[in-house]
Specification:
Radius of gyration: 22 Å
Order of helices and strands: EEEHEEEEEEEEHEHEEE
Helix content: 10-25%
Strand content: 25-35%
Strand order of the largest sheet: 1-11-14-12-13-15
């Protein structure tokens, strides 16, 4: 089974679990003054590079340092790193890299940012997702109806989904994301609508068969082919639907695309 890095971890895609810490206790002279606004730590999800083992962080105030803890799917700590930033201006991109103790897939990254006054705030992201391998459902031309001969393919996929969820449910709230694609035969507008209808049909089938996970779907038409072709080319590999289990919504390649809850 292929474990795909979420990043699909783009900036709009993670709904991080945040933790906030207190800074140093104020002195009597400071207590009479208004406390500064809460320190904010944000992560540019498009810059989370699991393969390159680097994350980019920004603080809302001048940065003293950033500390990260990287945990694997077993719960083991794969790396702990701390990098000084010597008062880098608020909003500056702060890149932190890590060297893991093993090749175990990353399940969680905890990030703690410290400002120059000693205050800190933390945020955790879960860059985990799994693409479910499956046999593609074959639709009739222009149709989104799932025909009876295709149902065994979905039943096999349903079993694989259940197996992954059973092993990883402790990671957090998992969602099933369904993404439809087409080849380049027909207009781009028609293909976009068709891919969305087919993705929704498959999502509805899973829900109708008792999938308790939240399910979201979207269609990308011919905009994200596996095999690049000229227009009006009948390429079977591009007529596909992706099944993705993820904690965070995977990044969609177009600003016009958005996940739709079933």
């Amino acid at each position: 089974m292929r474990h795909a890095p979420a990043l699909l971890l783009a900036a709009s895609l993670l709904a991080p679990a945040a933790a906030r810490g207190d800074g140093p206790s104020p002195s009597p002279s400071q207590s009479a003054q208004a406390r500064p606004p809460a320190l904010e730590v944000t992560i540019d999800r498009s810059k989370v590079d699991l393969k390159g083992r680097q994350i980019e962080v920004r603080l809302s105030r001048a940065a003293s340092k950033v500390r990260i803890k990287v945990l694997g799917q077993s719960g083991a700590v794969l790396a702990e790193e701390e990098k000084p930033f010597s008062g880098a201006a608020a909003g500056s991109p702060l890149a932190v890299t890590w060297s893991p103790s093993s090749d175990e897939p990353v399940a969680r990254i905890e990030v703690y940012g410290y400002d120059t006054a000693g205050y800190w705030a933390g945020i955790a992201i879960i860059p985990w997702n799994v693409s479910i391998p499956h046999e593609e459902v074959q639709f009739e031309t222009g149709s989104d109806v799932i025909r009876a001969p295709e149902v065994p393919k979905l039943e096999a996929s349903l079993q694989k989904i259940a197996e992954v969820v059973a092993k990883t449910s402790e990671l957090g709230k998992i969602t099933l994301f369904i993404v439809g694609h087409t080849d380049t035969v027909g207009s781009a507008e028609h293909n976009l609508t068709l891919s969305r209808r087919r993705a929704r049909a498959i999502a509805a089938w899973f829900k109708g068969r008792g999938v308790k996970l939240p399910i979201a779907f979207e269609g990308l038409g011919e905009s994200a082919p596996l095999v690049k072709t000229a227009d009006q080319v009948d390429e079977p590999k591009n007529r596909r639907v992706d099944y993705i289990l993820s904690i965070e919504p995977p990044r969609l390649p177009s600003s016009d695309a958005s996940w739709k809850a079933l």
